[in-house]
């Protein structure tokens, strides 16, 4: 009998899993299945983070666990790795984006080892439901706006790499010291079938 602790981070699906490219369906607050998915998402985020010394799990979308449901969980404080509280948002929608387009680094638990410098609007207005069904409208900016827009993309079958697909200088990886270093686009990205499984070329 194995004494190895089960790790829900193993349930996080990665490219080229086709479920990451599917649009998710709306959910109903209070549904026991929804509540269970939320618990699994939070635990998977924390388990993943334990295995990655230099990285923070700021948020997760249900499709990343193979559930094509419109659910995301966002860390209460995206700058504090010791704060393990996540806020679930059901059926989130972008009402409006505004401000400058900013370029900053993004990573994704479902796109292992690759980071990208991704353009996103500086500010966003979001409509969603809380876990108990209350409708909320929130204004977010900076890193939190980027994080939530990244997760809502997941619900529409979009990955952060799609925004920078043809930008040869936008892709990075973490080195052994936790620093971001550029990736060789032609060698690692351009014809990578894990990233672009449907490309004809």
How confident overall, as mean pLDDT? 92
Number of structural units classed as domains = 1
CATH H-level superfamily? Peptide deformylase
Identify the CATH architecture. Answer: Alpha-Beta Complex
Note the total helix count.
3
Helical content stands at: 10-25%
Distance between the termini: 48 Å
What is the topology?
Blueprint (H helix, E strand, L loop, with lengths): L31 H19 L8 E3 L9 E5 L10 E22 L7 E15 L5 E7 H14 L15 E4 L5 E3 L2 H5 L12
Antiparallel strand pairs: 1-2, 2-3, 3-4, 4-5, 4-6, 6-7
Keywords:
single chain; 3 helices; globular; alpha+beta; 201 residues
Outline the structure in words:
The chain has 201 residues and is an alpha+beta fold. The protein has a single domain (8-189), classed as Peptide deformylase (Peptide Deformylase), CATH 3.90.45. 19% of the residues lie in helices and 29% in strands. It is built from 3 helices and 7 strands. The protein has helices spanning 32-50, 142-155, 185-189; strands at residues 59-61, 71-75, 86-107, 115-129, 135-141, 171-174, 180-182. Strands 1, 2, 3, 4, 5, 6 and 7 form a 7-stranded antiparallel sheet that branches. β4 and β5 (135-141) form a beta hairpin. The longest helix has 19 residues, at 32-50. The protein is globular. It starts with 31 loop residues before the first helix and ends in a 12-residue tail after the last helix. The mean pLDDT is 92.
């Amino acid at each position: 009998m194995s004494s190895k602790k089960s790790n829900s981070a193993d349930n996080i699906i990665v490219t080229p899993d086709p479920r990451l490219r599917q649009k998710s369906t709306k959910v109903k607050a209070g549904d026991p299945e929804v509540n269970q998915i939320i618990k699994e998402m939070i635990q998977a985020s924390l388990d993943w983070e334990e295995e990655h010394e230099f990285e923070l799990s700021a948020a997760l979308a249900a499709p990343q666990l193979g559930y094509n449901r419109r659910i995301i969980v966002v860390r209460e404080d995206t700058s504090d790795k010791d704060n393990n509280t996540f806020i679930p948002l059901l059926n989130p929608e972008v009402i409006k984006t505004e401000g400058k387009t900013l370029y900053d680094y993004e990573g994704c638990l479902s796109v292992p080892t690759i980071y990208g410098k991704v353009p996103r609007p500086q500010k966003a207005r979001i409509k969603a439901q809380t876990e108990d069904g209350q409708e909320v409208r929130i204004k977010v900016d900076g890193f939190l706006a980027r994080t939530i827009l990244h997760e809502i993309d997941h619900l529409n079958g979009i990955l952060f790499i799609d925004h920078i697909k043809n930008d040869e200088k936008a892709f990075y990886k973490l080195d052994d010291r936790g620093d971001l270093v550029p990736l060789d686009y032609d060698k690692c990205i351009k014809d990578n079938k894990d990233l672009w499984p449907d490309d004809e070329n």
